[in-house]
Amino acid sequence: MAGIIGIYGLVVSVLIANDLKQNLPLYTGFVQLGAGLAVGLAGLAAGFAIGIVGDAGVRGTAQQPRLFVGMILILIFAEVLVLKLPAKWEQSENIIDEHL
């Protein structure tokens, strides 16, 4: 599950790389920097959450096997932290473009 979080970062980096031009306005550079930092930090937080939940889930499942489904659901919710950020990045870039 943690490998998928890395793919989110790769997707955002490809989106940023496709938008690069020779003369890039300063505000676009800051928006792209913010998008990269947001996805990276959210990925870090989701990775910590997955690690903590995975550790507790493996220990709990060893004692009570019916906890497995709940553990998987909690892992999915921890991973959803990263899903919403690329959409927010696209919204913020559109808002900035409208005001300039």
Describe this structure in words.
There is one protein chain. With 100 residues, the protein is mostly helical. It has 4 helices and no strands. It has helices at 2-18, 26-63, 68-83, 85-99. The longest helix is centred in the middle third of the chain and has 38 residues, at 26-63. The chain is elongated and about 60 Å long. The mean pLDDT is 80. It is found in: Membrane; Vacuole membrane. Its main location: membrane. It is a multi-pass membrane protein.
Q: Please state the structural category.
A: mainly alpha
Using the coordinates above, name the CATH class. Mainly Alpha
User: Ranges with pLDDT <50 over ≥5 residues?
Assistant: none
Can you tell me the CATH architecture? Up-down Bundle
Number of domains: 1
Short description:
The chain is mostly helical. 86% of the residues lie in helices and 0% in strands. Helix 1 (2-18) packs antiparallel against helix 2, helix 2 (26-63) packs antiparallel against helix 3 and helix 2 (26-63) runs antiparallel to helix 4 (85-99).
Provide key terms for this protein.
mainly alpha, single chain, Four Helix Bundle (Hemerythrin (Met), subunit A), 4 helices, 100 residues
Walk me through the topology.
Blueprint: H1 2-18, H2 26-63, H3 68-83, H4 85-99
Helix pairs in contact: 1-2, 2-3, 2-4
Main location: membrane
Family: Belongs to the V-ATPase proteolipid subunit family.
Domain V-ATPase proteolipid subunit C-like: 33-83
